[in-house]
Amino acid sequence: xxxxxxxxxxxxxxxxxxxxxxxxxxxxxxxxxxxxxxxxxxxxxxxxxxxxxxxxxxxxxxxxxxxxxxxxxxxxxxxxxxxxxxxxxxxxxxxxxxxxxxxxxxxxxxxxxxxxxxxxxxxxxxxxxxxxxxxxxxxxxxxxxxxxxxxxxxxxxxxxxxxxxxxxxxxxxxxxxxxxxxxxxxxxxxxxxxxxxxxxxxxxxxxxxxxxxxxxxxxxxxxxxxxxxxxxxxxxxxxxxxxxxxxxxxxxxxxxxxxxxxxxxxxxxxxxxxxxxxxxxxxxxxxxxxxxxxxxxxxxxxxxxxxxxxxxxxxxxxxxxxxxxxxxxxxxxxxxxxxxxxxxxxxxxxxxxxxxxxxxxxxxxxxxxxxxxxxxxxxxxxxxxxxxxxxxxxxxxxxxxxxxxxxxxxxxxxxxxxxxxxxxxxxxxxxxxxxxxxxxxxxxx
Length: 445
Ligand SMILES: Cc1cc2nc3c(=O)[nH]c(=O)nc-3n(C[C@H](O)[C@H](O)[C@H](O)COP(=O)(O)OP(=O)(O)OC[C@H]3O[C@@H](n4cnc5c(N)ncnc54)[C@H](O)[C@@H]3O)c2cc1C
Description:
This protein is an alpha+beta fold. The chain has helices at about 15-25, 40-45, 65-75, 100-110, 160-165, 190-200, 225-235, 270-295, 325-330, 395-400, 400-420, 430-440, and strands at about 1-10, 30, 85, 90-95, 115, 120-130, 130-140, 145-155, 170, 185-190, 220-225, 245-250, 255-260, 305, 315-320, 340-345, 345-350, 355-360, 365-370, 380-385. The protein has 2 domains: about 1-80 and about 95-175 and about 315-440, 3-Layer(bba) Sandwich (FAD/NAD(P)-binding domain), CATH 3.50.50.60; about 185-305, no CATH class. The protein has 12 helices and 20 strands. The mean pLDDT is about 95.
């Protein structure tokens, strides 16, 4: 029988950090991932830049493993580190090279003693009453049962929690619709000098908070070109629910990642609907590339470097945990006794049924995430980290970004190791011990 202390399902930013943290804290840890590489949406859907490690005033609110990953990437030349966000939406963004990020995630796992099982899907939970004992997996060779004292669901979609019979919610409360999916793609051979020039000459065509004073020298993030986009849509050349051109310079000097395609009203846990979305999004990408070449100064000679191996999923299942994090908790910056991480990204809801983005800014500098949102109500032995934690549709729109889920993963992995060492269920561990351990590992609480 294959038995581990901790099994983490899903090698995205949250799951990779959970596995590293569990292993570093002494647990024999297995990380299971369906792809042949780690990084989740950041590498499998090319979602970037990391947004954000800082609050609006420029104070760093996420450190720990997330910061370690950034520094390792910088050493490899795979990230410039934290740079100002020239769109003005947040204080900093952290561009990263997806290929080198795959390597850094892998190196950190192996150096920490994490055992890996790639190319493997988790297809069921092994239950003893309401307690999870392990997972069933499927890969090319076989179906297998793998056991652990604690299982961490880091699938983004809450697959394991759903298999275990945990209660979950999907989408907004009014109609269950989720944020749209997007296929990200990278354009190469961009003349960013010409983009900057156009921006200086047409300031009214860009997001109102754009830092025109920072255009020189900073990594470029752009939100605008409103009229050019609107006219192309009016001419029937573009078929997408987007009212802004949005792109971010990657870690490379002449490449940008474009965040513009949109598939709405898709259930990301239904493969038939996912297929429909992938087809529509790939068509949108081709239309957009032509639009960029024809209309956007500096993009005339561009080519598609790569697109996400899969379209990015912003939202699917959210478990119902011991506490459901509310929008007011984060907007007002409510302090919790069981805080395990902080974040400062605002509520950023891409319209589930059309174009536009609704932003709800924070009244506080930053906000807290409590341990209880990782604990699915009524299930023992299971922790949930990342995008599928217990929160509302609005709250998810703030806590889902990658630096935030890295911190949640580190907390979940550390909690799992503590539970194993104490012979307790994750629900029973000492919060003071967990917080002490996290602080000693550079986590800001
Ligand atoms: C279009 C888009 C734009 C975004 N923009 C940004 C941005 O600019 N900056 C930012 O920081 N964040 C951004 N985000 C958010 C962020 O990328 C995700 O919320 C984040 O990656 C979630 O991390 P996670 O670890 O919870 O899940 P994921 O990144 O989804 O990782 C889950 C992992 O689990 C694996 N998995 C899933 N199910 C199974 C299974 N049953 N068995 C085995 N393996 C499984 C997957 O293959 C994947 O590797 C964006 C997201 C999208 C979709």
